[in-house]
Design a protein that fits this description.
It is built from 16 helices and 12 strands. The chain is α/β, with parallel strands linked by helices. The strands form 3 sheets. An 8-stranded parallel sheet has the order 5-4-3-12-11-10-8-6. A two-stranded antiparallel sheet has the order 1-2. It is globular, with a radius of gyration of 24 Å. The protein binds D-xylulose and cobalt (II) ion.
Length: 439
């Protein structure tokens, strides 16, 4: 088979001292951490859209890297993208990929032609998956790129647009199921608004819930057993996205009775755009039983927009993996690199450098997270901080045995609270650094 990335061979683990840039220094797939191999814990996934489609365009300039792989005719280009994707996954040792329908096949002149294109490429992907053992982490529909979705898709003011979106999602679910996808994602796309002067927010959200219910029911009826996720994001492309953050999405799901059907796909840069930390969003999902999958990337806090950079900040990957381990690890989810090389990092090798950087950063994060859990001081401190709930008045409140009158009596007798203790933030931060950098 023709190689698209001839200059790069298989990437292997060479250890932290290696000066070979095309090697893993920290990601050792078979190393056991927390009862599983790194590979099983991390479940890395390639994002088809950034890796095989994004050409480095921004609003000031055209692409800096061609993703046509030497082909011209649209279907030939997309076949070449498929081969390139599998070559990359093979060389990087990545087991999964995620895709939008429009990433894998070109739009035709009609929906019917577009669907035929999708069927053809789905056949090719099936063949490549069978040969390689690679799998689909999740699929999704791009219901935001085409001009027809300028006012949204499921939340469009126009019923024809809603129907079109439903048709597109039906097909996307079918191909995700046909490819054995372990999940299906709804990311808000243009599901939000620019101004309330022209927006019926109540109707738009009711309609979004209708579309999601119809999708779940249809998917189950054709035998799809994967998880459904919503991917929160507060802004961009619309000024105000309905799926602002995990808490907002939870309220939406509960209002429409969809909370048993959906989990969260949490993206690092979306969390920071919502003025949260990545860890905050993961924790909100975990404590509400809706932790699902992760879009692994990082933003730039000075820029404040969705830069989709490859994750290299080890503190963040460590805090992420701490939450993932606390949630019991991934089940059907994984770490999807929703990330792209910078516009100026425009050679094929840069794709490898980027994935290696992200994979190594998460390997380090996983090791640190496991060490933090084994060390036990953080958990011990938190347990101690809440110890007053284990006995006395705390236990009475927890058991529902304390009335307002009794609590008043208790406070009157107490006179003043004399048991508050330091939160010891700096002491705890220092422990994290010790675990990160100590021997
Ligand atoms: C956009 C984003 C999407 C979703 C899938 O910010 O993150 O790529 O992950 O539609
Ligand atoms: Co994403």
């Amino acid at each position: 088979m023709k190689q698209m990335f001839e200059t790069v061979g298989k990437i292997t683990y060479e250890g932290p001292k290696s000066r070979n840039p095309l090697a893993f220094r920290f990601y050792q797939p078979d190393e056991m951490i927390g009862g599983k191999t790194m590979r099983e814990q991390l479940r890395f996934s390639l994002s088809y859209w950034h890796t095989l489609c994004a050409e480095g365009t921004d609003m000031f300039g055209s692409g800096t890297m061609a993703k046509t792989f030497g082909e011209k005719e649209p279907m030939a280009v997309y076949r070449a993208k498929a081969y390139a994707a599998f070559e990359l996954m093979e060389k990087l040792g990545i087991d999964y990929f995620c895709f939008h329908d429009r990433d894998i096949a070109p739009e035709g002149r009609s929906l019917a032609e577009t669907n035929r294109n999708l069927d053809e490429i789905t056949g090719l992907l099936q063949q490549l998956m069978q040969e390689s053992g690679k799998k689909v982490l999740w699929g999704t529909a791009n219901c935001f790129g085409h001009p027809r979705y300028m006012h949204g898709a499921g939340t469009a003011p126009n019923a024809d647009v809603f129907a079109f979106a439903a048709a597109q999602i039906k097909k996307a679910v079918e191909i995700t199921a046909a490819l054995g996808g372990e999940g299906y994602v709804f990311w808000g796309g243009r599901e939000g608004y620019e101004t309330l002067l022209n927006t019926n927010m109540g109707l738009e959200q009711d309609n979004m819930a209708r579309l999601m219910r119809m999708t779940v029911d249809y998917a189950r009826s054709i035998g799809f057993t994967g998880d459904f996720y919503i991917e929160p994001k507060p802004k961009e492309p619309t000024k105000h996205q309905y799926d602002f953050d995990v808490s907002t999405v939870l309220a939406f799901l509960r209002k429409y009775g969809l909370d048993k059907d959906f989990k969260m796909n949490i993206e690092a840069n979306h969390a920071t755009l919502a003025q949260h930390t990545f860890q905050h969003e993961l924790t909100v999902a975990r404590i509400n039983g809706v932790f699902g999958s992760v879009d692994a990337n990082q933003g730039d806090l000075q820029l404040g927009w969705d830069t989709d950079q490859f994750p290299t900040n080890v503190y963040d990957t460590a805090m992420c993996m701490l939450e993932v381990l606390r949630a019991g690890g991934f089940t059907k989810g994984g770490l999807n690199f929703d990330a792209k090389t910078r516009r100026g990092s425009n050679t094929p090798e840069d794709i490898f450098h980027a994935y290696i950087a992200g994979m190594d950063a998460f390997a380090l994060g996983l090791r640190i997270a496991q060490r933090l859990l084994e060390d036990g001081r953080l958990d011990e401190f938190v347990a101690q901080r809440y110890a007053s709930w284990n006995s006395g008045i705390g236990a009475d409140i927890m058991a529902g045995r304390a009335s307002m009158e009794q609590l008043e009596q208790y406070a009157l007798e107490l006179g003043e609270v004399s048991t508050n203790q330091s939160g010891r933030q700096e002491y705890l931060e220092n422990i994290v650094n010790q675990i990160m950098f100590g021997a």
